[in-house]
Amino acid sequence: MTDVTSMPNRTTVLIVGAGPSGLVAALFLLHHGFRDFVVVDAIEPGENTSHALVVHAATLEALDTIDCGEEIVAKGIKARSINIGNRSSTLVSTNFSSLDKHTRHPYALIIPQNLTEHIFCEKFKNYGMTVHWPCKNDADLTDVTFEDGKTITARYVIGADGAHSVVSPISCSSDGGIGFRDPKNGEKGDIVTKLTQMVFADVVYEGRDNSGMEFLSTMSPESFFLSSPIPNSFNDLLAKKGQEVKGQICRIGAAVPLEYLQNLVDRFGPTSLSSDASVNPNSTPVRIKEVIWSTQSRTQSAIADKVFTRLVTADDSSTERGGIILLIGDAAAHIQSPAGGQGMNFGIRDAIFLGDALIKHINASASQPSSIDADYILREFAEERRERALEVIAFSKNLLSFFGMQDKKISWLFPISATTVRDWVMWLGGKLGFMQARMAWSVSGLGRR
Fold it and tell me: Can you list the alpha helix ranges (DSSP code H) found in 321-417?
């Protein structure tokens, strides 16, 4: 636990959440010479588990602007393609080489989220800064109280604390105005579909040669399955404390109700990974030998009504303006399904854009008379990021519905299943270079920075 007595009583910026978004926001401020801020988190370091696995090109470009990209790339593994198919064959391979003319990162970088966070945290420490753990929020609007009762007050509070954000409810209570709603149907909460759950796990297979394994995305009737080999260099990082892992770890995931992981592989994965020898084309059953890590995630989509709130002071006659609350990152400001691996990536880009807007707002507020409203800077940031979040949510939804298409007949005139037509379209599209390029562009995030 951090000694909270080392914290100031007041600060200009308070960042709540030391995950990827919060740490990148802090690193942006440090990169631009601003140090009057404090970072706090309710979760002790090491208690987070691996979630996201891929960092996309647009995110790496954003990290390059604060000199954080090179170290992430050095630790990760560059995936040049993603194979998409049905259970028996590959239909299309998304080749990221088509991004060469758009970015210096024409690949998807495989790197576990906890390693990404560790790199950010070490860089943060190298600036001589400290994250304060653990903390909890009290009822005062821009105050945070630690477990020993110490309170810190800030002009700006950045909520980057994920799905269980303590900042979001505070900004809601200030004017009753912020809610989380699905951007399509306007209902609060998640969307009810057949694919309401996704299960992810890190596993070790036995019964097959793991050499040459690739990133596989497998479409099945009303579901889809993911399998990505993780280099052995990450074994110690992903293993439970004190556990030695022999063999290659693979991240698997399936968009189905929670079932036993082996059943997920047998039912929705490629036949080459089946534990049923009569189904496996190699006539050798492949079984999960051990589970390194697993988690369950909902495929809901939601977005905050607004991510910028200027609080109202208790004394209406006061010339002092209230504090500012800003929401960034996956789950605190927006929620999208894991399809496409966009959540953490978009949250990191949120942090980069917020850092730029925040520096401008702080400088403008210091140099301009109080009668001039500098809040337009943050309003523009909020509007632009909300627009981009809607685009990311729409992309994730479309990907989820396309991969998990219901296996039903198109019509009585065409007694053929919709999934068969989808597979044909994928196979034909995979033969066309411009379709491969479009798929790579969509996944990379370069068009939705």
Answer: 343-367, 376-403
* 282-286: Cβ within 8 A, 24+ apart: 282/208, 284/207, 284/208, 285/207, 286/205, 286/206, 286/207, 286/208
Cα gap 446→423, rounded to integer Å: 26
Kindly state the tokens that stand for 373. 């409203």
For the entire predicted model, the pTM comes to 0.80
Tokens at residue 54, please? 């891929």
pLDDT in tens, 129-188: 988 766 655 434 466 666 667 788 888 999 887 655 555 555 544 444 456 666 664 444
Residue 296 DSSP SS3: strand
Contact by Cβ (8 Å): 307, 333: yes
Q: What is the pLDDT of residues 88-136, one digit of tens each?
A: 888 888 888 889 999 999 999 988 888 898 899 999 999 999 887 666 5
**CA 101 – CA 80 distance, rounded (Å):** 15
Cα–Cα distance measured from residue 288 to residue 91, given in angstroms and rounded to the nearest whole number: 25
Question: What pLDDT is recorded for position 56?
Answer: 93
| Closest-CA residue to 16 (of 139, 156, 181, 140) | 156
Which residues are within 8 A (CB) of 132 and not within 5 positions of it... i.e. 6 or more apart? 2, 4, 7, 38, 39, 40, 41, 146
Low-confidence ranges of the chain (pLDDT < 50): 1, 138-141, 172-177, 185-193, 257-259, 317-319
Give the Å distances, CA to CA, from 213 to 91, 209, 219, 389: 17, 8, 18, 33
User: Token pair of 73, please?
Assistant: 């790339």
Q: Sheet of 249-254: strands edge to edge? A: 90-95, 81-85, 216-220, 223-230, 249-254, 197-206, 287-298
* CA distances in angstroms from 438 to 70, 80, 102, 217, 239, listed in the order given: 26, 15, 12, 17, 36
18: Cβ contacts below 8 Å, ≥ 6 apart: 39, 40, 41, 43, 45, 117, 121, 131, 133
What pLDDT is recorded for position 67?
Answer: 94
Spatial distance between the Cα atoms of 351 and 329, rounded to a whole number of angstroms? 7
